[in-house]
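Thread title: Can someone regenerate the structure for this chain?

I was given the following input by a collaborator and told the matching structure tokens would be attached. They weren't. Posting the sequence so someone can regenerate them.
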Amino acid sequence: MNKTDELHGRVVLVPGASRPIGRAIAHSFARRGATLVLPIYPDWPESNREMEQQFNRADYDYFCLPCDLTSWEQTGELLSEVTHRYGVLHYLINNIDRGGMPVVHGSYEKAVNKQQWQLEFDTTLKAKHHLYQHSSDLLSASEDGAVVNVSSIAALVGRSGPASLLYSDGYSAANRGIASFTRQWAKELAPAVRVNEVMLGLFEGRHGPGTRGWELMDTTQHHELLKRTLAGRTGTPDEAAEFIYYLAVSASYLTGAVIPFDGGFLLGANRVGEMPKGILE
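Best answer:
Regenerated them for you:
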């Protein structure tokens, strides 16, 4: 896609842009001329460097700021910098989470997972709340803003069926709470700001190919997951990014919605059977 200036002058905050889904989201906005605000965290140093190199080559308008979004104070400092630089925020793409796949981490009872439960809640749920609370005034000042909360169908699936290898108990429970935020925030910021949520299913780089957990699974386990997915495949980061872009920029009459974007995974557990012949003549 060629660069355009349709979003010139508009500011978007995208956490998680060093990872595949977040990176695709950032590209989607920046290619259309938006200014990117990118909080980064040192957990992924190589991904952070790669992201900045890509964005520099593309000549995007962006700035990165190291920030632990689970910290109320550091999140406040991030948004203070946004206020100082721009005085407004048009879009918050609340793309931050952390979930230990059971196929990788095993039980919470293992010593190595002592902090995992809290980490999943702090990153998946609390960090989103921090970002919203510190950015709500800036978003309202735009008078045409949007929040998109990025969550997971783990909220509805939990650690069950073939997805039990991917979705942990804490991660599933934390994602369940995001819908409450979405509906509450939509009421709080209307009509100046729309708030919606996209619940992602299996995507490349997120509970799909290219993740450590997926690579640990065998072909039979992959098959069981894809058989459950009506689309018969995993999604791509670009597909997720374009849908999230639509919700943020184009869906002007949509707010308070929680939308599964999962290739039909939630529906795929129960397929339509053949029509019985019946007994009537």
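The chain has a mean pLDDT of 96.
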